[in-house]
Amino acid sequence: MSTSPSLRLIVCAVGLLCCTAASAQIRKCVTASGQSIYTDKPCEAATPEKSKEVADPGVAKRLSEMNGQNDLDKACWTINYRMGQCYARIQEDIRMIFRDQCEIPQRRFVKNQEAALYSNRRQAQYVAKQREEELDTIEYHQRHAPKSRAVLRCEELESDTWKFLNQNFASKIQPDERQRIEYKLKYQPEKTTETRSSSRR
């Protein structure tokens, strides 16, 4: 399965930004087939085919913006995953705002994750092994494994969702919606919650 230049850029850029060496020089390498690859290594060592380094002064800024977008997309997906795993009552106003603002970021995150998995067969094999081990973390490639209450944090799901929306989409929340939601959060009684996996026990 071949990958498009834009897809190759996304996969390589996301991987690069996970690196802790923030001060490393970032290079833009263009292969003979026209693919752009961003790396902190010399082009000859980072690409499977012949390539040359191309000057790109704005690369660091663009990669930083891509990383910020990827973090937002993953946060949307993670909260939605927790909603699907928890029997937690959440205000309908909060659900509607979350659905409106996170529908596209969630889809984009899933699309990029699937592309990253299939772009490298070795990575896909490693992921398959992790699925068998059923690691207790909320990651896309481990989404089918059962999760503990400590990881899902169902009791904090409503407040976590509201905090996330305020931090990232404050301008999209209407004043009357905000007032109504915060009133209910302050005065509503405590709710009992459980995970879907625990309900099966």
Mean pLDDT: 75
Share of helical residues: 55-70%
| Biggest beta-sheet profile | 3 strands, antiparallel
Question: Structural class, from secondary structure content?
Answer: mainly alpha
Taken in chain order, the helices and strands follow as HEEHEHEHHHHHEH
Q: Work out the strand percent.
A: 5-15%
- Beta strands, count: 5
Give the overall shape, derived from the CA principal axes.
elongated
Notes on the structure:
The chain is mainly alpha-helical. It has a domain at 5-61. The chain contains nine helices and five strands, in the order αββαβαβαααααβα. The protein has helices at 5-17, 43-46, 59-85, 92-118, 121-133, 149-152, 157-169, 175-187, 196-199; strands at 27-31, 36-39, 51-54, 86-87, 194-195. The strands form two sheets. Strands 2-1-3 form a three-stranded antiparallel beta sheet. The protein has a two-stranded antiparallel sheet with strand order 4-5. A hairpin with a 4-residue loop joins β1 (27-31) and β2 (36-39). The longest helix has 27 residues, at 59-85. The chain is elongated. 17% of the residues are buried. Residues 1-14 and 16-23 have low confidence and may be disordered. Residues 181-194 have a biased composition (Basic and acidic residues). This is DUF4124 domain-containing protein. Residues 181-201 are annotated as: Disordered. InterPro entries: DUF4124 (IPR025392). It comes from Undibacterium squillarum.
